[in-house]
Amino acid sequence: MFGGVSRSFYLQEEVMQRIIHPKKKKKVTKLKLDMLVKEQEIFEYLKPTTTLDDVVLHPKTRETLQTVVRQVDKNVYKKLREWGIKDKRKGIDARIIFYGAAGTGKTMTAMSLAKTLKKPILSFDCSKILSMYIGESEKNVRRIFDDFKELSRQAKVEPILLLNEADQFLSSRSEGAGSSADKMHNQMQNIFLEQIEKFEGILIATTNLLGNIDKAFSRRFNHKIEFKKPGRKQRLRLWQFMLPESADYEEGFDIEELAKHELTGGQINLIIKNTAYVVAVRDESVFAMSDFVAEISKELGSSFDGAKSMGFKV
To answer: Out of 93, 146, 281, 313, which could bridge 50 as a Cys pair, Cβ 3.0 to 4.6 Å?
Structure first.
């Protein structure tokens, strides 16, 4: 009917993929966020391997985090709406600060919370924010939140924002005239306060120095969770979960004896790895108590107070 004239129609690759694979939308979205993060220099895209069920936590800490998780429950959300606590936004709103000694699992717990909620997590190291140029640091603080919102918008997801080593933002502000450096620091903190106040979603800040936190910041966080060094019972669980199951151990090997040493989860993780490197080069690769005791002595006797900034999983 067209007199032999043919017509060709072209569809974009993205449209074709949606037609061919309509159920792969979530997977494509996740990969898209990953790729977007690679194109910028501010955030790191973290890939959690554990959930909250896999991490050794203090019972009170677990209870608090479960309260956050349950915000997605329909009945809980309905009650919060009726009470006027939440608006129409169905997502979780939580501004959390994890504080405690290095190596107690703050970053690992943040990642495990993300996996439990099936959310991506973007991390920013706050120690990188300082600039040589006056005025640039303030711009960089805004950029953290602006770029996070833009990445979320482009990928159409709601990642968790993890602010590691947030001590410099959270410390008490300088009073009086002060130097230009003090003024810049105060301005950075004011911007940080403002952005936290307006933040929608889940924000987690980690710090080792809660005692220096400005009271104005304390009021901005819904949940303040302390990560204490593990007690003997928790240390025993950590040793049990972290020791290689397939390895050979000397007769009479006593985990209870190892648990007596006051170590953080990060230190236990490091000691096991260092001991494994020593044992693996032997012809008879058998783990002995003396191997662990030697590494524990090195760790506890280090000039860095033995605090290694590492998470732990079980």
So the answer is: 313
